[in-house]
Amino acid sequence: MKSRILLILTVWLSFFLVSGCDEQQTEKQPQEEKGPGMVKLETSIGEIVIELNEKAAPVSVKNFLQYVEEGFYNGLIFHRVIKNFMIQGGGFTADMQRKQIRPPIVNEANNGLKNDRGTIAMARTNDPDSATSQFFINHVNNDSLNYVNERKPGYTVFGKVVKGMEIVDAIAAVKTTTRHGMRNVPVEPVIIKSASTVSGD
Q1: Would you place residue 25 in the very low, low, confident or very high pLDDT band (cuts 50, 70, 90)?
Q2: Staple partner for 52: which of 37, 70, 160, 168, CB 3.0–4.6 Å?
Q3: Is pTM beyond 0.70 here?
Q4: CA–CA separation, 194 vs 40, rounded Å?
Q5: Which residues contact 157 (CB under 8 A, 6 or more apart)?
Q6: Could you state, in order of their start, the residue ranges of all structural domains in the chain?
Q7: What is the spatial distance between Cα 132 and Cα 66, in angstroms, rounded to a whole number?
């Protein structure tokens, strides 16, 4: 009888120690630290890497990353290209078809970031809070696109090119035409083959 009780106590104690050890290990596991958001655009001309500024433009960055992570940009084109101004994409396929988009987001242009050469910003209509999936990369410093006040709300900058500015220059230099009533469309489509998040290392 005593040996049976001793056996039960031994088994119970072993179970308690193992369970406690697991809990202790779980508590000691550090939380995953997130580095700066980076997105790679693999285009038909070359690779562009963008560093996102979540601190300055949290809504715009979250929105952009959602589109990236669901593969929305894959196969779309830079449909509006103006040298010494900007290159714009994220809205049309090569045959100028639109994809279904999510609801528009709030304008965050009053975040201290400027539309300088190499920065990426949200494209929109005349309504400040109308940005959805389309974005543009500034080819030059575009001070006229910066936030001034509520009457001149500007365009939200949410990141910058950290690799591949020569690709932006190359895209900006392509020959353009008018297609489907839209001006400044590249004659030869500049395709975003893929958009993906990458390590900031």
Answers
A1: very low
A2: 37
A3: yes
A4: 8
A5: 53, 56, 57, 109, 111, 113, 114, 115, 119, 120, 121
A6: 38-198
A7: 11
